[in-house]
Amino acid sequence: MSTELCPERPLFGGAISSSFPQRFQDASNIRQVPDHQEVFVDPSRDESLIFELLDFKSDVGDMGSASWFLHDLAREQDAEGFKLIEQSNVIDVPGLSYRNIPSVATTAIGEMAISKGRQGREAQNLLRVYVANIRLKGVETDVLVTAYEPILINPLSESANAVGSGLAVPASQSGIMPMCDVIKQSLSAFKVNDWSLFGSSA
User: Fold this and answer.
1) Which family, according to UniProt (predicted)?
2) Torsion-angle region of 139 (φ positive above 0: left; ψ -120 to 50: alpha; else: beta)
3) Residue 36 DSSP code
4) How far is CA 15 from CA 32, 96, 100, 102, 190, in A?
5) Residue 95: helix, strand or coil by DSSP?
6) Contact by Cβ (8 Å): 69, 133
7) 3-state SS string over 101-166?
8) pTM to 2 decimals?
């Protein structure tokens, strides 16, 4: 059972906040991160948690929106062997309505083989990817929360230098919160503190 501390973290200059385990470090201290993303990594496990603000995709229905984004992610990252494991129904998120326009969320879990950075297909790692899509309709924004959890690290991958190759050690064996719970925790604690972040639509 994990007893990890999950402090509240400011995102996007504090306009949004969430909470997740302290072991996740802000990647912008190490590398350039696009303005519409907040990226947190645990280098010791090669796990990452990404919050992303996107223009609302009006052509994507609420039902299955997270799995649509998950497929899109697999395409973008040139993933192989994509497999959708599960997707949720549409969940109402009453605490995130704006001007009485309700917000909804869906989640999806998939597996895929992805290479790191500019490495080729021969260095692909097998990952489980968790996606939550919060649809802030009042400000025409799709929020994506994505958690990456390695299942199998390729010996040719850059990741092997940091965490070793082969099957990843399950979180439960290390006494830490598994990624399926990390994303649930970050979702349940997700708050918009300043709607002006979303510009003219707010």
Assistant:
1) Belongs to the MOG1 family.
2) alpha
3) T
4) 20, 13, 20, 19, 11
5) helix
6) yes
7) ECCEEEEEEEEEEECCCCCCHHHCEEEEEEEEEEEEHHHCEEEEEEEEEEEEECCCCHHHHHHCCE
8) 0.90
Radius of gyration of the chain, Cα coordinates, nearest whole angstrom: 17
The order of strands in the sheet holding 16-19 is: 8-11, 16-19, 191-192
DSSP tag of 169 = P
Q: Is residue 29 a contact partner of residue 71, using CB atoms and an 8 Å limit?
A: no
Q: In this structure, how many other beta carbons lie within 10 angstroms of the beta carbon of residue 30?
A: 11
Residue 36 corresponds to which amino acid? H
pLDDT at 105: 96
Which of 104, 34, 114 lies closest to 66 in space, CA to CA? 104
Among 183, 100, 171, 112, which residue's Cα sits nearest to residue 137? 100
- E strand or H helix at 51: strand 47-55
**Alpha carbon distance 22, 5 (integer Å):** 6
Q: In terms of Cα–Cα distance, which of 57, 52, 68, 152 is closest to 108?
A: 68
Alpha-carbon distance 130 to 147, whole Å? 5
C-alpha distances out from residue 154 to 87, 111, 157, Å: 27, 15, 5
Distance separating the N- and C-terminal Cα atoms of the chain: 41
